[in-house]
Write a structure and sequence with these properties.
809 residues; alpha+beta; 27% helix
Length: 809
C-alpha cells in the first residue's frame, strides 16, 4: 500500500495545491532580472561569431573571399560552407520524418535570402560583425521560385530548388516531395448522395514566431576529454543532442546539451537543430575555445523558420439539414528552401482537417513543395492552425450558401461527450469530448446584442464562430513512442529537486510541476527546486512541444511522486509500527491515521533514509533517495493503410467566437467581444491556463490581422524587421476575459489532464476571418473572403470592390 496524502484522504476539491491558482514560483527570479539566458553565459576565452548571410534567394556561389576579415586583429577563424562540409553532414533528421538536406552553411548555391554562407569568429561580438562586413561573396543568380504555382511547374533545372534531390531521392519530383494520403470510408458514395457539395480554396499566410529571446548558442569543446558542451535556447535538448551527434558523426555521449534556466519564449520556433548551434560547435572544435552565436532580430526573421503556408482545396458533402457526409481536401504545404519540419506539419494538418466533427468519409491528399523562401518550421498550433482555418472557413461558406445557423450546423455534427468513449472516423480514441459543451458556453458568453448596436452607416459588424480538435502531444511518424521522464530527488533535509527533459519557456512549468509533486509528497511547492533540461543530468524525453508538458511529462512527475511517497511511507510505517495503508502524509509529517499522535516529520524520515540504514525496513537500503519514472503515450500511432491514426495521448478541443466591427471607410477592424471555451480536462493551475489561452489568442490575432513574412518576386523579404512586421500591439489587443473550461477528464492521462498550450492560437485566426465574412457577406462580397492577414488595406479593398489580393469572391 502507498499510504495517503491529504489530497487522497479528502475529495478532489480539497486537493491542497492542484487546481489552485498559486503564484508562479519562477516569476520573482524572472522579473528581478536574476534569471540566466544563453546570452548571459560568459566562459573564459570565449569567442563571438556571426554569420554572413546571402542577399540572393537563389544563386550559385562563384567565389568567397575572406582574406580581409582574416587579416583583422582579433579575428580568430572563418568558416565557409565547403569547410563545414568537411566536418559535418547535412542535417534535418530523417529519423523524425524529415530529410537531411540542410548544409550547416550554404554549399555551392544559396536557396533563400538569409541563408548562412560564411561564419566569422572573433574576440568580441562587434569585431566579428565588422569582420563579416568585409567578406566578399560572388554569385550567379538563378530564377527565384517564390510563388507556389511557379514552384509547382518549373520550366528548367535552374528552377529546381534541389536538383540534386530530384535526381537522387525517389520521394522528390521537381520541387514536389513528401506526399501523404488518407482515404477513409466511401467518399465517392458520400458525394454522390449529398444534396449539396460546397467547394472552397484558401491559402494560409506565413507568420513567424517573435520570441523575446532570439536563437542563441554557446559551444564549448574540451579536447582533453573530446566532449562538446552546447548551451542553447532549445525546446528539446535530448533531440538536439542526437541530431548534432548525427551531423558531426560523433557518439551521443560525447555531446552535452544544456538549456539554461530560462528561455525567452519558444512557440515551436526553437524545435529542431539550428544553424547557429552547428556553427558554434564547428568553430569551437576548430579553435578549441568556447564560441557564442546569438542571432539578432533581423536574422531571426530572415534565417530561421516561419509558419508553414498551406493551400487547401476542399469540398464538403452536405445534406440540406446541414449534416456533413464527407470531406475532401487537397493540401499543398510550402516547405521553403529546406525540408525542416514541413512534412510533420503537413501530416498533422491531414490528420486533423476533419475534426472535431463526425465525418465518416474522408479523403485527404497532401504534398510538400520547395520554394526559395525561409524554411517552414513549427509554430504554436503546428499544422492544426492551418487545418482549422481551412475547415472552419469552409463551414462558414456552407452556413452562408445554405442559409444555416453557424452555431447549429456545428452542433449538429459535433461528437457529444455522452457518446464517449468512442473512436473518431480518423482513428482517434476519444475518452471524453467536451466540444459541444464548449459551443454552449461560448454561445452563452458572447454578447450577440452588439450585432444590433451600429451607430454609423459606414460601420458593419459580424459574428465569427469556429471549433477545433487538437492534440496533447503527438507520436511522430518515425517513432513508436511519445515519452518524457522525470526524476525526483529528496535530500537528507527533506528538500526536493525535480529534474525533467522539459525546457522552461515561460509557461509556468516549475509551478505546475511543483503543485503536482507537492500534493504527492505532502509538502509546500516552495520547498521544491526544478532542474532544467541538461542531457548530462536530466532523464531522457522528447522535450517541450505539442501541448505535452503537463499531460506527458506531468504524468511522469505524478508517477515519480507516487513512487517516492510509497518508499517514504514504507519507512514511516516501519518506524511507527503500523501498516503502510494506515499512514497519512500531510504538511510534511507522517502520522498513523487512527492515532495522529504517533508521527514523524518528513525531514527525519529523509535523514534516516540517507544515514541510518538500521532504522529502515529490510527491503530498503540506505542511500540516495531518488526516483525516476517515465510516461509514454498509450496511443498506437498509424493504424492501417487508409491513413487512420491514433496519434495523441488525448484530444483537447475548443470553441471560440468573436464580434468585430469594420469601418468601411478605412478598412480597420475592432474586436468588440471575444469568448473562448476549452475542453482541457483537469486543470492544475487555472491562472496559468488562462494565461496560456490568452497568449495563444493574441498570437492568433496577429496572424489574422497583420502578421505575414512577405517576399517580393525576386525572393527578397520585404518586412523582415520589427518596424515593418505587424505584430499586435497592446493598444490594439482586446481584453480577453471570457474564458471557460468544459467539465471533462481523461482516462488516458493519470491526472486527467489534456493539453492547452496551443489552444488559443489555433482558432483565433479563423474566428476573425469568419467574423469579417459575416460582416461583409452580401453587401460587400458575394462569396467568402479568403485573404489573410486582414490588414486595413486588404479590408478596404474588400469593402470597395477591388480584387487585387485575389480572393474567392
Amino acid at each position: 500500500m502507498e499510504g495517503k496524502t491529504k489530497s487522497q484522504t479528502d475529495t478532489d476539491e480539497d486537493t491542497q495545491y492542484k487546481g489552485r491558482s498559486i503564484q508562479r514560483l519562477e516569476d520573482d527570479r524572472i522579473l528581478s532580472g536574476n534569471s540566466r539566458y544563453v546570452d548571459d553565459i560568459e566562459l573564459p576565452g570565449m569567442l563571438h561569431a556571426t554569420v554572413v548571410r546571402s542577399m540572393r534567394s537563389h544563386a550559385l556561389i562563384e567565389e568567397i573571399d575572406t582574406s580581409e576579415a582574416e587579416e583583422m586583429d582579433g579575428v580568430v577563424d572563418t568558416l565557409t560552407g565547403e569547410e563545414a562540409a568537411e566536418m559535418a553532414n547535412r542535417y534535418g533528421s530523417r529519423r523524425s520524418g524529415m530529410m537531411d538536406d540542410h548544409p550547416p552553411l550554404a554549399q555551392e548555391k544559396v536557396r533563400f535570402a538569409g541563408e548562412g554562407v560564411v561564419a566569422v569568429a572573433a574576440e568580441s561580438h562587434y569585431l566579428a560583425k565588422d569582420a563579416a562586413s568585409t567578406v566578399s561573396v560572388s554569385y550567379d543568380s538563378l530564377p527565384s521560385m517564390v510563388e507556389l504555382d511557379d514552384a509547382l511547374d518549373p520550366e528548367s533545372e535552374d528552377e529546381l530548388v534541389h536538383p540534386e534531390l530530384d535526381e537522387a531521392d525517389e520521394d522528390v519530383s521537381g520541387n514536389v516531395w513528401g506526399s501523404y494520403s488518407i482515404d477513409i470510408g466511401d467518399v465517392e458514395a458520400a458525394f454522390d448522395e449529398a444534396d449539396t457539395i460546397v467547394s472552397h480554396e484558401i491559402e494560409t499566410s506565413r507568420p513567424t514566431a517573435v520570441p523575446l529571446e532570439p536563437h542563441g548558442a554557446v559551444a564549448d569543446y574540451d579536447p582533453a576529454d573530446d566532449v562538446l558542451t552546447l548551451y542553447t535556447s532549445t525546446q528539446e535538448a535530448h533531440q538536439v543532442r542526437r541530431d548534432l551527434a548525427d551531423t558531426l558523426d560523433r557518439p551521443v555521449n560525447s555531446i552535452r546539451v544544456v538549456q539554461p534556466e530560462n528561455m525567452g519564449g519558444g512557440f515551436g520556433h526553437k524545435l529542431e537543430l539550428h544553424e547557429n548551434e552547428i556553427v558554434a560547435a564547428l568553430l569551437s572544435i576548430r579553435t578549441e575555445r568556447p564560441v557564442k552565436v546569438v542571432l539578432d532580430r533581423i536574422e531571426e526573421f530572415q534565417g530561421t523558420r516561419a509558419r508553414q503556408p498551406q493551400r487547401h482545396e476542399l469540398e464538403l458533402a452536405v445534406d440540406d439539414d446541414g449534416s456533413f457526409l464527407g470531406i475532401r481536401d487537397d493540401i499543398t504545404a510550402v516547405a521553403g528552401a529546406y525540408a525542416a519540419l514541413t512534412k510533420p506539419g503537413l501530416w498533422v494538418s491531414c490528420n486533423l482537417v476533419a475534426t472535431p466533427y463526425r465525418i465518416d468519409n474522408i479523403e485527404v491528399n497532401g504534398r510538400c513543395v520547395f520554394t526559395n523562401t525561409v524554411p517552414s518550421g513549427a509554430y504554436r498550433g503546428f499544422g492544426m492552425t492551418q487545418a482549422a482555418t481551412a475547415r472552419e472557413s469552409l463551414i462558414e461558406k456552407v452556413s452562408k450558401e445554405l442559409d444555416l445557423d453557424p452555431w447549429e450546423v456545428r452542433r449538429k455534427n459535433l461528437i457529444g461527450n455522452e457518446e464517449c468513449p468512442t473512436t473518431h472516423p480518423m482513428g482517434f480514441y476519444l475518452d471524453s469530448c467536451g466540444t459541444e459543451e464548449c459551443l454552449g458556453l461560448v454561445r452563452e458568453d458572447i454578447d450577440l446584442s452588439l450585432l444590433e448596436e451600429k451607430t454609423d452607416d459606414e460601420i458593419v459588424r459580424g459574428l465569427g464562430v469556429a471549433s477545433a480538435m487538437h492534440v496533447s502531444s503527438a507520436q511522430r511518424p518515425a517513432y513508436t513512442s511519445d515519452n518524457s521522464s522525470v526524476t525526483i530527488r529528496m535530500d537528507e533535509d527533506g528538500s526536493v529537486t525535480v529534474t525533467s527533459d522539459q525546457c522552461p519557456m515561460g509557461t509556468g512549468l516549475e509551478t505546475s510541476f511543483a503543485q503536482i509533486v507537492a500534493d504527492e509528497l505532502g509538502i509546500s511547492p516552495s520547498n521544491i527546486n526544478f532542474d532544467f533540461a541538461d542531457t548530462e543530468t536530466s532523464p531522457f524525453g522528447l522535450g517541450s512541444w505539442g501541448s505535452r508538458a503537463i499531460t506527458v511529462a506531468g504524468s511522469a512527475a505524478y508517477e515519480a511522486g507516487r513512487s517516492l511517497r510509497e518508499r517514504l511511507t514504507t519507512i514511516a510505517a516501519h518506524q511507527l509500527e503500523a501498516a503502510p495503508s494506515d499512514i497519512v502524509l500531510e504538511e510534511g509529517r507522517f502520522f498513523v491515521e487512527s492515532d495522529p499522535s504517533r508521527s514523524r516529520p518528513l525531514e527525519e524520515i529523509a535523514y534516516d533514509a540517507h544515514y541510518n540504514g538500521r532504522k529502515l525496513p529490510d527491503e530498503i537500503t540506505a542511500g540516495a533517495v531518488t526516483v525516476t519514472e517515465s510516461f509514454d503515450s498509450p496511443a498506437p500511432g498509424i493504424l492501417d493503410e487508409s491513413g487512420k491514426a491514433d496519434i495523441a495521448v488525448n484530444y483537447p478541443s475548443n470553441v471560440h467566437a468573436s464580434i468585430v466591427e469594420i469601418d468601411t471607410r478605412t478598412g480597420t477592424i475592432d474586436i468588440l467581444d471575444y469568448a473562448a471555451a476549452d475542453d482541457i480536462g483537469e486543470v492544475i493551475n487555472p491562472m496559468i491556463v488562462e494565461g496560456q489561452i490568452q497568449g495563444g489568442i493574441v498570437q492568433g490575432l496577429g496572424m489574422a490581422l497583420g502578421e505575414d513574412l512577405e517576399y517580393d518576386a525576386s525572393g527578397q523579404p520585404v518586412n523582415a524587421m520589427m518596424e515593418d512586421y505587424q505584430l499586435p500591439l497592446i493598444n490594439e489587443t482586446p481584453m480577453i476575459t471570457k474564458i471557460r473550461e468544459a467539465d471533462t477528464t481523461s482516462e488516458r492521462a493519470p491526472l486527467g489532464t489534456k493539453g492547452v498550450g496551443e489552444s488559443g492560437s489555433i482558432l483565433a485566426p479563423v474566428v476573425i476571418l469568419n467574423a469579417v465574412n459575416d460582416a461583409l457577406y452580401d453587401e460587400f462580397v458575394s462569396s467568402t473572403v479568403t485573404e489573410m492577414p486582414l490588414d486595413p488595406e486588404t479590408v478596404y479593398q474588400l469593402c470597395h470592390g477591388a480584387d487585387e489580393s485575389g480572393g474567392d469572391r
